[in-house]
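Hey, quick one: can you model this chain's 3D structure?
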Amino acid sequence: MLLATRAIVLTTRAYNDQFAIAHLLTEEEGVIAYRIPHAPRGRSRRSGKYLLQRMMNPLAELAITAEHRPQRSLQQIEQAEYHKLNLNLLLYEPHKVHIAFFLAEALYHILRNAPADPEVYRYISHGIAQLEETKNSCANFHIAFFLGLLDPLGIFPTHLLDEEPKGWFNLKEVAFVPYNPHNGYSLSPKEVGALTKIRRINYNNMHLFRFTREERKRTLTYLLDYIKLHYAPIGELSSPAILAHLYR
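Sure thing. Here's the predicted structure for all 248 residues.
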């Protein structure tokens, strides 16, 4: 069947000389693997279907028409264009490119086995627009993004919003406890004190928050650990160089 949908590029990897494999988060069907043809030598890369290869940048949002067959592991994109006329402005700001690579990889691991969820898609699409358009510092963007993602994923700990942070915080049990759980997933009393500040961060005020390199790193680690424990196993991300850039 032919499916017309918005889609966000998450990962692309070479398969052979003829094509690459790209995983796109589609609004209608969730994460789908597509066959992306390479332009043969001597053939204009500006012609026909080979333009698709140039669109496969992390977090590029496209409007695609694709042929989906249930028995096929790799689906086929028939037509594609950028969803917005700004043509993926992330490509022109190096720091945002690093953030886009990291977010795209993390989202692939989080959502690859998840059912389609239009609310999750809309949240991610809105986040991409915020990243593209912000003129302020985006050093804390990934923290604001993953904190906000907890709500559409259905795992935001709303019962903690009115509770005074105290003692240790057990990520597995999603509760404050008076002792160290020794489970590898807990915040110390010192780190718990920072929760009051962190849980207020959003795209509008993220540039006002001041974190040390280590605080930013540990905050992101805890957010990803929380998602891993309560939504989907993430596994080891292959972007340490990107993370090092983000933690400057």
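One thing worth noting: Helices lie at 51-54, 94-111, 118-133, 141-153, 189-193, 195-198, 213-230, 240-246.
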